[in-house]
């Protein structure tokens, strides 16, 4: 199994919305991918509540069957469509991918 984790910092204002509204939209768009992409076992999006200087604003946690499933996920048209919105509202991104089992 592969775990794919992404942390984003959001712009204070983008696409006519403030950071809080865009955080909810990112969460909605990404979580809507559950059950729609082969090999994607689980995907959760959390919105940071501490709002510390070192915190990210949003974190994506996902589990995929294997490395091939991660590639399928990243190239899937629904993921790319959600990514178009995400890229417009973020100003920073960090990620990690690792295997377990």
Keywords:
single chain, 101 residues, alpha+beta, Alpha-Beta Plaits, 4-stranded antiparallel β-sheet, two-stranded antiparallel sheet, 6 strands, 38% strand, globular
Write the layout of secondary structure elements.
Layout: E1 2-10, E2 13-14, E3 17-18, H1 19-31, E4 40-47, E5 58-64, H2 67-75, H3 77-89, E6 90-99
Helix pairs in contact: 1-3
CATH architecture title: 2-Layer Sandwich
Tally of structural domains: 1
Low-confidence sequence ranges: none
Which structural class should the secondary elements be placed in? alpha+beta
The value of Rg in angstroms is 13 Å
What would the principal axes of the Cα set say about the shape? Answer: globular
Structure summary, number of beta strands: 6
- CATH class descriptor name: Alpha Beta
What is the third-level CATH name, the topology? Alpha-Beta Plaits
Order of helices and strands: EEEHEEHHE
- Helix percentage range: 25-40%
* Sheet with most strands: strand arrangement: 4-5-1-6
Main beta-sheet annotation: 4 strands, antiparallel
* Beta fraction: 35-45%
State the end-to-end CA separation: 6 Å
Helix count equals 3
Mean pLDDT: 97
If you had to describe this structure to a student in words, what would you say it looks like?
The chain has 101 residues and is an alpha+beta fold. It has a single domain (2-99), classed as Alpha-Beta Plaits, CATH 3.30.70.100. The chain is 35% helix and 38% strand. The chain has three helices and six strands, in the order E-E-E-H-E-E-H-H-E. Strand 2 and strand 3 form a beta hairpin. Helix 1 runs antiparallel to helix 3. The longest helix has 13 residues, at 19-31. It is globular and about 35 Å long. The termini are close together.
């Amino acid at each position: 199994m592969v775990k794919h984790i992404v942390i984003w910092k959001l712009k204070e204002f983008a696409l006519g919305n403030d950071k809080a509204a865009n955080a909810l939209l990112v969460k909605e768009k990404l979580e809507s991918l559950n059950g729609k992409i082969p090999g994607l076992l689980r995907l959760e999006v959390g919105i940071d509540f501490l709002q510390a200087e070192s915190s990210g604003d949003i974190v994506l946690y996902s589990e995929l069957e294997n490395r091939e499933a991660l590639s399928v996920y990243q190239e899937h048209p629904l993921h790319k469509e959600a990514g178009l919105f995400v890229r417009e509202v973020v100003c920073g991104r960090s990620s990690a991918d690792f295997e377990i089992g």
